[in-house]
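Continuing the batch. This is chain 6 of the set; chains 1 through 5 are on the previous pages. Same settings as before, nothing changed between runs. Recording input and output for traceability.
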Amino acid sequence: MIVKPKLKIIVDTREKKLIEKLKDKKESIEFEVQQLDVADIIVSQNVAIERKEGFDLLSSLVDNRLFEQIYRLKEVYLKPVLIIERLNDEVFNNTGIKKSSIYGALCKISCDLGVSIIPTQNLDDTIIVIERLAYREQVKRGEALISRKAPKNMSLEERRAFIIEGLLDIGPKKAKILIEKFKTPFKVFQAIKNTSIIHTKSGKPKGIKGPLSEIPGFGWKFIAKNKELLFGKINDIYQKTLDEIGEKSR
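Output for chain 6:
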């Protein structure tokens, strides 16, 4: 008779529904409940999970909690995972957010930030995913189960500035300036979106107009590059100029 190894996970105290469901899996999963500083579920020293139900995902996207949570998760764990539960037509049809915006945010999390995204239909399926991840880490790879904490010396404002440092052509000093001015990363992204590039009669960019024009040190190149990073394709004239700058810098 083959005895299956018992898997161990750590679950955040706020995951009430998950904790109740896990009580039925005691034979295969041993779980410990802790108030976690980062993540909702920990399966190894390298892999931790942020779990979002459909409506919670959209709510956290609107108030910018989602990206803050993902950046913290990525900062602390080598292999962060985002499980999205029940992102279905009921969710899409009862929100004012465009599907393209939702999927755009998920593309950024997956492609730009390198965080694995796993969709599930319900809580039972989520537990299957947690179990498989724990098995791969603890049995196949022999990884230890360790709860990590985010650096205590990093304030909320510093974390927000850290997110902004992920933009192009920006360092800690400029990131701090933007957070002090606009307060949250989401409002910084909005300011970039709402800042337009002024160009000459011949079509060459020469300056900017909008929220960032009030702050010294931010020019049209910063706006053009980061509009492309955050929102996709930019004007062909700006792209041509950026290409020329790239060629000269080689």
